[in-house]
Amino acid sequence: MLLARWLECGSSLLALVEPMRGVDVGARADIYTALRRMAADGAAIVVATSDYEEVVQLAGRAVVMIRGRVTRELAGGQITTESLMDAAGG
């Protein structure tokens, strides 16, 4: 519902916090597809999440932060579950 409302307002920036929390697997895939389409159409999408797999699925660029400080920036093929875990210290 939120994405539909966002599309109606015509904004070029979408900020999401833990957007897939509580979303079932089927709906998650549909949302990933919609977000990728929006990004391809020029929207800037900022996602704050602790779900590494979500980052791998969505991000073209990832910034890992610990206690409010950037510890690593990753892009493209650098964004893997392993690299995110390493950057987060785990």
From TrEMBL:
Q: Name one GO molecular function term.
A: ATP binding
Q: Superkingdom of the source?
A: Bacteria
Keywords on record: ATP-binding, Nucleotide-binding, Repeat, Transport
Q: Which PANTHER family match?
A: CARBOHYDRATE TRANSPORT ATP-BINDING PROTEIN MG119-RELATED, GALACTOFURANOSE TRANSPORTER ATP-BINDING PROTEIN YTFR
In its UniProt entry, what is this protein called? Sugar ABC transporter ATP-binding protein
**Organism from which the protein derives:** Streptomyces antioxidans
